[in-house]
Amino acid sequence: MEVEIIRSKRRKKTVAARVVDGRIQVRVPEGMKPEEEAAVIAQLRRKLESQQDQASLQHKAEALNHQYLQGRAQWSAIRWVSNQQHRWGSYSPQSGEIRISDRLYGVPEYVLDSVIVHELAHSIEPNHSKAFWELAGRVAHAERARGFLEGLQYRQG
């Protein structure tokens, strides 16, 4: 997202940021040093973009749940994580949380959809039973997505 910097004479120490019309608007003290300003803006940008990504992931999960699982999946939260190096996603039955590996940033949409539906299906069928695979396999291009992920796993090593 584009960043708009607003330097304020009234601000002395605090910095604020928000999304306005698809841009990140950052308000900083007028006298802030350029290197300090750049670091603060980078941090705020990551935080706001992450919040936007999380909301987008939630909307995607809701749509996929209705489209492929008739709204039967139940989860408390879905979010991107950076600490999953061996899994593409995970579902915790205790907390109801779905975690999606950030290694999937930028993959084709059908691949991400397949991983999300896989994790949503775990909220209905906890193991990899025949019933589970019937649910997870409903997503468009499921086999193709599985092949893509196998290739990606091989490449990432």
Automatic annotation (TrEMBL):
It comes from the Bacteria. Residues 81-139 form the YgjP-like metallopeptidase domain. Pfam families: YgjP-like. Gene3D superfamilies: Metalloproteases ('zincins'), catalytic domain. PANTHER family: UNCHARACTERIZED PROTEIN YGJP, UTP PYROPHOSPHATASE. This is YgjP-like metallopeptidase domain-containing protein.
